[in-house]
Design goal:
Arc Repressor Mutant, subunit A, three-stranded antiparallel β-sheet, 4 helices, 27% helix, globular, 5 strands, two-stranded antiparallel sheet, 107 residues, alpha+beta
């Protein structure tokens, strides 16, 4: 039986396992980038086979600097101000110095 959280729901429901491919897809990065984070120790992962790694959602959130409320999904997370962190899902990236209206031609 899985350990339970304070509201008597299994912890696995609040802290699911994610594959490196799922993380890469969610963050819109290469799976090789996620493997690099694991090898650098930036993201803690558990080996689940010869070639499969699993990461807890809470560990990914820790690396991203996301603070989740105890009420769980549905709440808007607050994110740290680190400009070098990977983007969170749905987050818009702003490139300074680029004009969205410019198409490279002068006229």
């Amino acid at each position: 039986m899985a350990p339970e959280s304070p509201d008597n729901t299994p912890l696995a429901d609040h802290d699911p396992w994610l594959t490196l491919a799922e993380i890469a897809d969610e963050l819109r990065v290469s799976p090789a980038t996620v493997r690099l984070w694991v090898s650098q120790g930036r993201l803690e992962a558990t080996r689940a086979g010869a070639r499969k790694w699993l990461v807890r959602r809470s560990e990914l959130d820790r690396m991203l600097g996301v603070e989740r409320s105890p009420s769980g999904p549905g709440e808007v997370p607050s994110v740290s101000g680190d400009p070098y962190r990977p983007p969170t899902p749905g987050e818009r990236l702003i490139v300074h110095g680029a004009s969205p209206a410019s198409n490279g031609s002068d006229g």
